[in-house]
# Entry
Amino acid sequence: MSKVLVISTSLRAGSNSDVLAERLIAGARAAGHEVEHISLKGKDIRFCIGCLACQKTQKCVLNDDAVWIAEKVKNADTLVFATPIYYYEMSGQMKTLLDRLNPLYPSDYRFRKVYLLTTAAEDESYVPEKAVSGLQGWVDCFEKAELTGTLFCGGIGASGEASGKKDAQDKAYEFGKALE
# Structure
């Protein structure tokens, strides 16, 4: 089975994407995967400064939590990003982390499969499209990887509301069970 890394990008306590990420993790473990979970809550992740030194050294010149998170990403078989949708896009902290994963581009990264779990107050099917497109743009830079699947759970707004949404929890669990 795969070594799965789940990165929860919401900074809100009791966030809906965290609730559903936990159900996804339970499903992935039930399928026999080894799962590690990282939350960006409380992490120091600075903006990429665009120096591109990492393209030669495979190390970032900034010394913060993105450095060790990048190492975890590099060594995972499967990546799952869980994000709330803000203004029809991924969370800013997720985008900042993706930018800071630039040292992985020239490296011998292990991940091949990338998944996205999104939540939003709105429930129209188009709501996650820009977040999916943004992650697809990042994945496109890693030629050995592919965006393998996405799950959108809409109509969930108030903090912790996903705790009472059995249908969304069941979908997240099954999504986790189906990870490759």
